[in-house]
Amino acid sequence: MYNDTFSDSLFHFSYGNLSACKPYRYGKVFKTNIIGTPIIISTDAEVNKVVLQNHGNTFVPAYPKSITELLGENSILSINGPHQKRLHTLVSAFLRSPHLKERITRDIEASVGLTLTSWSQLPLVHVQDEIKKMTFEILVKLLMSISPGEDLDILKLEFEEFIKGLICIPIRFPGTRLYKSLKAKESLIKIVKKVVEERQEATIERTNSPANDAVDVLLRDVNDGGGSDKQSQPLDFVSGKIVEMMIPGEETMPTAMTLAVKFLSDNPVALAKLVEENMEMKMRKSESGKEYNWSDYMSLSFTQNVINETLRMANIINGVWRKALKDVEIKGYLIPKGWCVLASFISVHMDEDIYENPYQFDPWRWDRINGMSNSNICFTPFGGGQRLCPGLELSKLEISIFLHQLVTRYSWTAEKDEIVSFPTVKMKRRLPIRVTPVERTSPISVEDH
Ligand code: HEM
Questions:
Q1: Atom 3, ligand 1: which residue's CA is nearest?
Q2: Which annotated residues bind heme (predicted)?
Q3: Long-range CB pairs of 115-120, under 8 A, 24+ apart, other chains included
């Protein structure tokens, strides 16, 4: 797929008047052709950075047709310009707010606790499937405060039907995958709209209290007249945005957690160090009798290393697609107007010039990397620049809580399984494990393990 399939004539045609630009044939930025569409692939961290920063709104997101059909042209994932910036700022500010952090920490702890207890009562757990139930529950709580129950179950069924169409043949008539997914989207929006309408009535009375979920955030914004295109059908607008926000978090979170379990199962020394760090924290906390807060979890430096290393190797989002709205030159390479560019994260994350032994799970490498000048541009699991994932901090918190409870209260054995990377990152056998409760009373040192 990465071979240059361009003919010389096209090559000269594209660059005839821009001879100062670097040729594309070799090196870290090159042209290729995917299913008949010519594209430029960047495996260069600095070029990726410029594409992501997107100064002057030169690049717009470019998704396969099935995705744009399902999302609609005004989706948060595809809009560009001031509306995208406004929404991004609103959602990011909410997801990083101290009020949310405090509340969501308790919610995540409760969901993880119940999930792990149920796992320990099952003879075999397929992590990839089971973890999805938990992460979906947390996501929906965060977006619209729906708790487990019938509404959540229906929402989950419709959502699963909806996302089946994200990668499919973009033909829309009764019976096709796309058609079924669009129908599921209608039902989803109906369910969400009911929540939004009920909240609209309640919101009028308590606008001074902090926002509890994304519905609160968006409703307050439309009620304050935020944005211009929302006024005609503000409740439809809010409902649509909530459904769109379910997409980026739904698959990524459970995949990250599943792969963390996989990598730890295969690396007992890293697991022992993780147990040690988390048991120390658990003992400190039980002595003080205080609840954990967001920064307690973030202070677990080896745990954060494990999360970074998991995200580096997992490459859940292996890159982002953009289309150039005008000719752009980056580091001497020309990206012509109208062309698509794939900023490949996986190529940078697995580049041996940047990461020594890139295929080795080595959480300790992050002690050496953190603080290096180019570390942020060479590590982009959450993207960067204008569209940097607003769920970044929340994702790290959720994975930290999951790992903390898993390794301090349980041990597990994993059956043999392998990672499949196409079309999305998955475990071939859904990662079967057996979970046993353990009574740990002291941190286990790496040597004891
Ligand atoms: C490990 C988990 C996650 C990973 C690896 C991840 C990765 C990403 C990446 C790479 C982007 C940038 C896409 C682009 O530039 O086109 C993105 C955007 C986004 N993510 Fe995440 N994400 C994760 C979890 C979440 C969660 C839990 C949420 C929701 C609470 C979320 C909400 C979003 C939203 C709304 C955007 C679009 C931002 C915009 O375009 O303005 N993500 N994510």
A1: 252
A2: 389
A3: 116/405, 116/406, 116/409, 116/410, 116/435, 119/410, 119/435, 120/410, 120/435, 120/436, 120/437
Question: Does residue 252's CB lie within 6 angstroms of at least one atom of ligand 1?
Answer: yes
Strand-strand pairing, 340-344 and 59-61: unpaired
Q: Which fold has domain 8-448?
A: Cytochrome p450 (1.10.630)
Annotated binding-site residues for heme read 389
pLDDT digits (tens, 9 = 90+) for 220-236: 998 887 655 545 688 99
- For residue 255 and ligand 1, the question of a CB distance below 6 A is answered with no
Amino acid at 113: G
Q: Any idea where the domains of the chain sit in the sequence?
A: 8-448
Distance between Cα 390 and ligand 1 center (Å)? 6
Render pLDDT for 404-441 as a digit per residue (tens, 0 to 9).
999 999 999 999 999 999 888 999 999 999 999 998 87
